[in-house]
Amino acid sequence: MATQHPTDAEVFQRFLAQQVASDGRNKSPEELVRIWRERQREYAETLKALDKGISDIEAGRVYPFAEVNDEIRRQQGWSSTE
To answer: How far is CA 29 from each of CA 16, 21, 33, 40, 43, rounded to the nearest angstrom?
Structure first.
């Protein structure tokens, strides 16, 4: 049996219910819609970044962890793990 995904309207309704249950009662409808749109934009950007990362892995565009870790530590001025 296939999993049925919620519609955008259902997800938005859950978002509104969560907001009202917390501090959303103090926000205007416009503010709630702005927050919703921002979260949807962030979600879309995250999915895009994950897709790119998966494509890079599949294409072999990867670096050993030790090399990446050393580069990050150098950039941040952190001491080496060795």
So the answer is: 10, 15, 6, 16, 21
What string of pLDDT tens digits covers the 82 residues of the chain?
Answer: 678 999 989 999 999 999 888 886 788 889 999 999 999 999 999 999 999 999 999 999 999 999 999 999 999 999 876 5
Q: Maximum Cα–Cα distance for the chain, whole Å?
A: 54
Residue 60 lies in a domain: yes
User: How many domains does one find in the chain?
Assistant: 1
Domain that holds residue 38: 28-82
76 occurs within a structural domain: yes
Residue with tokens 């859950």: 14
